[in-house]
Amino acid sequence: MKHKIHGWHIYLVVTFVLLGILISTQIQTQSRLMSDLSMQSTSDLSIMLKNLTDKRWLLTEELEEAEQNLLTYQNDYSSDTALISSVENELNRLQMISGTSAVKGPGISITVDGYMLATDLVVVINELWAAGAEAVTINDCRITATSGISYVDTMEKTYLTCDGTVIQEPYEIRALGNSSILEKSLTMPGGIADSLSLYQVYLNIELQDELTLASQPSQLRLRYGRVPEKN
Amino acid sequence: MFWLIPVFGLILGALIGSIITIEIPLTMAKYLSVAVLAALDSALGGIRCIYEDTFNGMVLLTGFISNAVLAALLAFLGDQLSVDLYMAAVFVFGIRIFNNLATIRHHILNRFMQKHNMHASQHKNDMP
User: Fold this and answer.
1) Residue to substitute from A4, A5, A14, A29, interface B, most B β-carbons within 10 A
2) Which residues of A184-209 are buried (b: 16+ CB within 10 A; e: fewer)?
3) Is the N or the C terminus of chain B less surrounded, counting Cβ atoms within 10 Å?
């Protein structure tokens, strides 16, 4: 078979090599897409959601039962002596510190206006702890010793998460402590409020005489940790 | 054996593509698929031009690349304007691919028939 035009072999090979690369890339991307959570069908997702919600309800019920038990034990012994009451005071104090009980007092509430990153949120919280905050919540998610701030990416949007639950906008951070010191720690020149305003994120800080911070019911169970022997 | 060239090219390209995995962001997958469609159309158009003796290598290559890029850009633009230009690209390139395939098939059939007839006439001539 002879053609009038020469050199077409090379062009054709180049074109088809490029086509092959494109197609195989597309196939790979497609298979990645299929395994991506955001690309799952709505029915699959709703089944997954239902399973997880059921599990969560079961766990919440279990937790309630455990807390009920705790309450009965507390009631059983509270009628005892001064020793018991001092132990109870200690328990309350520890519960407030650990975040297992709600806590109220003076402090500041910060409403975040703008698009905030997880790392920014962590910086704000660290600043509050450093300024002597005794308890911090973000939209009713209490920050405890084992709390984690992170984010999840979806196709449309990035959501911040606190302890694995999504925090919905608007973000409201509450901190308990000396309100003027807490406020100064954020608004000092060159501080976090200044650097966030560069990214069009504004912190609206309100000083409050009385704030109530929610509790974090999940308790850390120690399965591996032990108290070391004292010598 | 000219039909072997695109087949080998395709296999070679697929091998290269699977060896060097190019990580495309998942949001771009849709645009890549339109680009693949446009590229497929151009490549088939090239084969068709060989049969019609109007083949030009530069035209094929530039058409191949610019069609793919433009189709992807158009789909992207459509998404920004919330108009499904993506569908328009799929529709147009789909029709063109089928057209090209049909034309190529006709040419191959014609060639085959001509050869067959030639053989037949030769046989006739051979006969005393």
Assistant:
1) A29
2) ebbeeeeebbeebeeeebebebeeee
3) C
Token digits of residue B79 = 């998404």
Shortest CB distance from B13 goes to which of A3, A19, A36? A19
Per-residue pLDDT of chain A (231 residues; tens, 9 = 90+): 444 445 677 888 888 888 888 888 888 888 887 777 776 778 888 888 888 889 989 998 999 889 888 888 877 766 666 677 778 888 888 888 888 888 999 999 999 888 888 888 999 999 999 998 999 999 888 998 888 888 888 877 888 888 888 888 888 999 999 999 999 899 888 888 888 888 888 889 999 999 999 888 766 677 888 888 877
DSSP code of residue A158: E
**Nearest CA to CA, how far is A111 from chain B (Å)?**
31
Which two tokens mark A107?
């402090």
Which residue has tokens 């979806």?
A154
ipTM score of the complex?
0.81
**Whole-number Å distance between alpha carbons of A62 and B100:** 66
Q: What is the pTM of this model?
A: 0.46
CA separation for the pair B54, B22 (Å, rounded): 34
For residues B5 and B57, the answer to whether their CB atoms sit within 8 Å is: no
User: How far, in Å, CA of B44 to CA of B6, rounded?
Assistant: 10
